[in-house]
Hints:
Layout: E1 5-12, E2 14-15, E3 27-28, H1 31-48, E4 52-61, H2 69-81, E5 89-94, H3 101-109, E6 114-120, H4 124-130, H5 136-148, E7 154-160, H6 167-179, E8 184-189, H7 197-203, H8 211-227, E9 231-234, E10 237-239, H9 241-250
Parallel strand pairs: 1-4, 2-3, 4-5, 5-6, 6-7, 7-8
Antiparallel strand pairs: 8-10, 9-10
Helix pairs in contact: 1-2, 6-8
Amino acid sequence: MPDPxxxxxxxxxxxxxKCVYCAFYSEASSGELINRYTAALVRELEIVAADLKPKTIxxxxxTPSLLNLRxxxxxxxxxxxxxxxxxxxxxxxxxxxTVSADKAKLFRDFGINRISMGVQSLDEKxxxxxxxxxxxxxxxxxxxxxxxxxxxxxxxDLMFAIPTQTMEIWRTTLNEAMAMQSEHLSSYEVIYEDDxxxxxxxxxxxxxxxxxxxxxxxxxxxxxxxTGGFHQYEIANFARNQSLNSQLSTFRAxxxxxx
Length: 259
């Protein structure tokens, strides 16, 4: 008999709006479709529960936090009934727009103990350039909600080498992100994936890629993160001392945050 699955990834394929760089599978959000997905996920968990003994759970997307309280409670109560809760680390990806005090409390009540928040940038023009639905102010507000709810393990996702992003803007974003004192930081260079609007814009000559600047931004990221108390344990991931061990055991199963 094979060993039980100890690292579980759950994909929630819904977004309020597709970002211009995103090549992950997702659908436009629809109440009825999400209800059907929720019911199907519960049925799938029931089928495979006997083969699962998760020590780590990562719920990515899409935008998992887009599900409403009733839908999340349905999933979490099913997991509770199937004895699938109690993971050492249970992460949910969140878009700052879809974080609320009630949702944060529900997550905490059912043992979700880590949030990965898709920030990408703290510059309003770049957020708009990427097709993000949140503002910089929503990032700070949502982070405060999570802290007040008791989350002491939060990841911030950032992107660099965004079209029109300057080194000055990148440094400002890094300074503001560091000041938030998250436990984890993920940062990725923009990738131009086929079949994305951003790739089509690049092909059309609407902008060019400055690889030298991208390398300088990556070097700035490493320098700023390490002096800010983070340890680089993987090319795009940084963790503080208190969360480093758990990240080393889970990061390989987690995709880049698109929320």
